[in-house]
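Query structure, 370 tokens:
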């Protein structure tokens, strides 16, 4: 071995020892070797394990770091615009009447609004009449012969009545033209004009005008108040020729499928004219009719086919005669849509109490809705 190699070897060993010392110093000062939560937990656990435990050790959870926030807070999305309520149109009196009488009141059923007793004096008087929708069960709102109205209409109907076994005549007949003219959603006028009769020398009957007021209307029911005024334009030979006032309450209902129940009650009070010669008496009367619709409107010539039974009750309430007569009658009826809003109607009325004003009466009618 060379003499000079010993100092070199000693220098080499010194450098190795210095490197090992430096590495040990670095590891001792590193955070990795610092007392970590786990190590600290173990130390505490080891410390407490030598003592009697008084409560369970609590787990140590890592600390949640706070999320950095943006420099500007995000803006909130704009709220969706609220749809404005539709503005109801204001009508002049002339516009309201014209729209009710001549407008297309069937085109927009959405214009129809429910009316009630709560807004009887504040709603509907200044709005045009709109044909109401079908009832709650789907039955149409229509008029029947020998039954009370209840509902507002815009139509005209020519009716013919033939009575068999009347008091002074073996048979008799009469004709009538009835029109319904709406003025507003709450008010319409019904007119009845006698056309023909074989009773006596004059065929013209008393002219009757009836203001009608809508009390309430929902999808399932309609209620109205009629106030008929009879003018003495006819002849007492026909049982006409006297003036009277006739207040009457009517109703119409449809809650289930095609079943309709309708009726009314009222008073007929003569006050002027040839009351005695015409045999007119003050009378209380009522009516209930029940029917069922079997076909749809477009099934013409058998559209809107309804069959019904009408029941009528009347009681004389004055002292103009020797007795207070009670009369009850009943009979079937039908209504049928022929097409193009033309309708055929018929009914039969048979008294079942005595004395009978007639043996039976047959009604027929042809009607146009416009």
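Result returned for the query:
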């Amino acid at each position: 071995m060379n003499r000079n190699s010993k100092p070199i070897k000693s220098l080499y060993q010194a450098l190795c020892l210095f490197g090992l010392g430096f590495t040990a110093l670095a590891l001792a000062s590193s955070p990795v070797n610092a007392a970590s939560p786990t190590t600290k937990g173990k130390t505490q656990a080891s410390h407490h394990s030598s003592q009697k435990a008084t409560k369970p050790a609590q787990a140590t959870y890592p600390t949640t770091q706070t999320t950095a926030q943006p420099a500007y807070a995000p803006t909130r999305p704009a709220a969706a615009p609220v749809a404005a309520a539709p503005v109801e149109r204001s009508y002049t009196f002339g516009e309201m009447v014209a729209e009710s009488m001549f407008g297309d009141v069937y085109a927009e059923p959405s214009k129809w609004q429910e009316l009630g007793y709560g807004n009887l004096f504040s709603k509907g008087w200044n709005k045009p009449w709109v044909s109401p929708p079908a009832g709650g069960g789907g039955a149409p709102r229509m008029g029947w012969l020998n039954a009370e109205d209840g509902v507002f209409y815009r139509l005209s109907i020519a009716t013919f009545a033939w009575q068999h076994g009347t008091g002074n005549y073996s048979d008799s007949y009469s004709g009538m033209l009835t029109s319904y003219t709406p003025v507003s959603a709450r008010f319409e006028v019904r007119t009845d004009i006698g056309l023909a009769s074989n009773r006596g020398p004059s065929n013209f009957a008393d002219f009757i005008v009836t203001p009608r007021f809508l009390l309430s209307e929902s999808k399932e029911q309609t209620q109205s108040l009629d106030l008929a005024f009879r003018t003495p334009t006819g002849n007492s030979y026909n049982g006409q020729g006297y003036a009277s006032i006739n207040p009457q309450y009517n109703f119409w209902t449809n809650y289930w499928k095609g079943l309709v129940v309708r009726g009314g009650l009222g008073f007929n009070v003569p006050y002027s004219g040839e009351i005695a010669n015409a045999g007119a008496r003050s009378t209380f009367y009522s009516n209930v009719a029940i029917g069922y619709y079997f076909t749809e409107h477009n099934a013409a010539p058998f559209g809107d086919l309804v069959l019904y039974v009408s029941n009528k009750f009347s009681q004389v309430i004055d002292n103009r005669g020797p007795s207070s007569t009670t009369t009850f009658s009943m009979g079937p009826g039908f209504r049928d849509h022929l097409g193009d809003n033309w309708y055929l109607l018929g009914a039969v009325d048979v008294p079942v109490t005595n004395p009978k004003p007639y043996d039976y009466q047959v009604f027929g009618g042809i009607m146009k809705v416009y």
